Each structure stands twice: as structure tokens, then as C-alpha cells.
Amino acid sequence: MRIDVVSIFPSYFDGLTLSLLGKARSTGLLDLNVHDLRDWTHDRHRTVDDTPYGGGAGMVMKPEPWAAAIDDLAAIDASVRPTIIFPSPAGEVFTQASARELSGSDHLIFGCGRYEGIDERVFEYAATRGEVRLISLGDYVLNGGEVATMAMIEAIGRLIPGVVGNPESLVEESHEDGLLEYPSYTKPSLWRDRPVPDVLLSGNHAAIAAWRREQQFERTRLRRPDLLPGDES
Ligand code: 6GU
User: β-strands 107-111, 2-7: how paired?
Assistant: First the structure.
């Protein structure tokens, strides 16, 4: 998979050279390219923002550098129509299902907005170059799309076959089956007066599986009732 990220703070993404995603990049499973939006400006001050029409607080990102960036990045591989993601608190909410769907793409482009956002016409223009998605991490506000993009790249990247060494570790995680994951324990079996649940030491695999399933339902009911069928919230 090829991923291009456009940001005015490219160094945010230095962390993506670490750990599993860093390895995936060096082995070629993930071709991640981070770009500075200002490289698509032409004025001396490398201007990317301006005041909003209609008035209001803050600045809006100008359309021209974004259009030039999208044109160049979408043309890199003319054989695929890229998915162009703009992180936005006004977008659809990102879930494990979104991550799964996007992990099947050949080319993702992330456009990280800052300030009060990007000129609305950029989203329409981008739709002439790829499939546009506005995606939010959740119901809170970040200062820009960079942290959201990193979260999405990590969630998507680890689902690319071969990125996570043991594929079984992917199936038992929270959200893959619509439930929270069961609790985990390691040695010592008694630690600061706290024992590991007996069933996990029993060697009875059917009992262990049943207990873990029960724990999944119990935690989901307590912490995330909205995930269970019949919850209207
Ligand atoms: Cl994707 N962007 C910003 N700026 N804030 C957010 C968000 C995205 N998701 C949640 N809050």
C-alpha cells in the first residue's frame, strides 16, 4: 500500500518510523511518504492560509496549494484512483470497520487541515481525482488533522497482511468481533495479594474460552453498552 500525507507539520510523522510500522516501511509492505504542503506554494512567504469570507475567527487554508498537491500525488500511480482522506471533526466516525475497509486500498492520501479548516471547494475538487472521505476520530476537537492521521495510519497499517507478525493477535482484539477484549494476565500467579483467576491456571481450554467470552460481554455491558445489540444510544 502507498500512503501520502500532506501537512504543514511533516515532522509530526517521525514517530511512524518506529516499531511495527517502521518495520513495514523498511520491508516495503508500507510505502509511506510525508509531504510539506508549503512545497506547493509559490510566494515568498509560502502562504497556506487566509481570512475567511463572511468573517469569523481564525484562518482558512487556501485552495491552490491543496489542489496542486492532490494533482501531483494522485498522478503518481495513474493506474489506481486513490482514496483521499481529510481528517475532520465534522466527518464520519472512524471505526475498526473503517480501518479494515481502508486497509484494502492501494493508495491513500491524507490531507491534514489546520486552523479553522480547508476551503470547502478543495473537497469537491479532490473528488475529481479520487474517492474523498471526511473522517473524524470521535466527538472532541483536536488542533489539526495530524494526530488523527497518525492514529488512522496505525490502525490501517497494522491490518496490512504481514505487518503484524502473528495474525492471530488481530482476531482476538477489542472491536474485531464487536466486543471489548477479555482481560490478560501473566506471571507471577499471585502478585501483591492479587491472584490470577483460577480458571486461567486450570488447563481446561473450553472453560478458559467460555470465561473469556463471558468477560467480553460483561466488560462491554459495563463500559460500552452502546456496542451491544438493542442499545439505542
Ligand atoms: Cl479527524 N480532526 C480534528 N481537527 N479534530 C478531531 C478529529 C479530526 N477527530 C476528532 N477530533
Answer: parallel
Question: Which residue ranges of the chain lie beneath pLDDT 70?
Answer: 233
The pLDDT score that the predictor gives to residue 167 is 77
Say how far apart CA 75 and CA 28 lie, in whole Å.
Answer: 21
Residue in 5, 85, 115, 137 to alter for ligand 1 test, most ligand atoms within 8 A of Cβ: 137
Task: Confirm or reject: Cβ of 84 under 6 Å from ligand 1.
Answer: no
Burial 125-137 (b: 16+ CB within 10 A, else e): bbeebbebbbbbb
Atom of ligand 1 nearest to the CA of 113: 4
pLDDT confidence of residue 16: 87
Residue-wise pLDDT tens digits, 105-123? 999 999 999 878 999 999 9
